[in-house]
Amino acid sequence: MPFKSILFIIVLISSFFWFGFNVRKLISYLKIGKSENRFDNPSRRLKNVLIVAFGQNKLLRDPVAGIMHFLIFWGFVVLLLAIIETIGDGLYPGFDFGFFGGVYIYLTALQDLFGLLVVGSVLFALFRRYIIRPKRLDVTGHAQFDATFILGMILIIMLSMFGQNAVQFAKSHCSIYMGRFISIQLAGLFDGLTSEQQHMWYEIFWWLHILFVLGLMNYLPYSKHLHILSSIPNVYLAKLDNRANLKMLNLTDKTTTKFGASDVEDMTWKQLLDGYTCTECGRCTASCPANITGKPLSPKKIIVDIRHRLMEKAPMMVNGQLSFVNGQWKNSKDDIITDERLTKQLVDNYISEDEL
């Protein structure tokens, strides 16, 4: 087996192991929330996924941002086969889907088309964020860095794919690659090189492409773009009845020791999942009547605060196996824990009474 394949297998297994570890950790955090049944009526839930997640009908209410997001989303869906092809080439050098025959030409043409659309959408997203600067995207600090970093990674993934395909065509001029109309235009940059130089450039683009794909996958659990992983499950698990129907508190129940929610463990696992899925786009706050009239309420901030508080407190509750007994936090050994992170709570320390 070639050294490249051995090295790639190590990188691939390590990447998926770390990704699986982080996903499992995030799921474990949801378990501190209260139970709630969101698995009824699977046919209706699947219909919602097709319309909302794959059809992007909610995002398309904003034609500018919606179309941009639609192209990036479907670009990655279409280019998933290109990523699988790259992985195949890493395991078996020279692998491609050319055995599909004539269909492969149309498939590669579609990949080049969507690759171009994704590049254009990313550049427009950066232009919109830094030049047009709509109020709801006017953020600073980590939120700004995170958005820019993700867009930059997507751009490198697309450009390295074009580079990889361009060198591949320059090396072989094989007719099965004729569908790559963008890559063919770039292939001229590599025509005059020796076979060794072409091979070197192919390896550079190939490793750049796959490392950024795997890097993006493993960065998502630490990013506000976690919604790339959680949005489709969250849409499936969405509330099916009228969302304005709030669950009433039974104030006459004498067995209840606490009404409402003051911290993340008082919420349901689905409400905590909403925190994972927030894209921080600000559409909710921009449409909020209270916020528009100058009130301190920001629906986006509420959801983001829930996620931040969950990430702060849940690791202690899950790893330390803590329980709240007689007004004190105790671990599995019945020792009293006085960590500052446990004395804080979502309401007051994150979300103010004025906001509520």
Write a structural description:
This protein is mostly helical and 356 residues long. The protein has two domains: 3-31 and 62-222; 264-349, no CATH class. It is 62% helix and 2% strand. The chain has a three-stranded antiparallel sheet, with no helix packed on it. A hairpin with a 5-residue loop joins β2 and β3. α9 (227-236) packs across α10. The protein is elongated, with a radius of gyration of 24 Å. The termini are far apart.
Number of DSSP strand runs: 3
Gyration radius, in Å:
24 Å
Strand order of the largest sheet: 1-2-3
Instruction: Classify the oligomer.
Output: single chain
- Average of the residue pLDDT scores: 88
The secondary-structure element order is HHHHHHHHHHHHHEEEHH
Structural key phrases:
single chain, three-stranded antiparallel β-sheet
In short:
This protein has 15 helices and 3 strands. It is mainly alpha-helical and 356 residues long.
Secondary-structure topology with pairs:
Blueprint (H helix, E strand, L loop, with lengths): L2 H28 L11 H13 L8 H16 L1 H12 L10 H31 L8 H32 L8 H7 L7 H25 L7 H10 L32 H9 L5 H5 L1 H4 L6 H21 L3 E3 L2 E3 L5 E2 L2 H4 L2 H4 L7
Antiparallel strand pairs: 1-2, 2-3
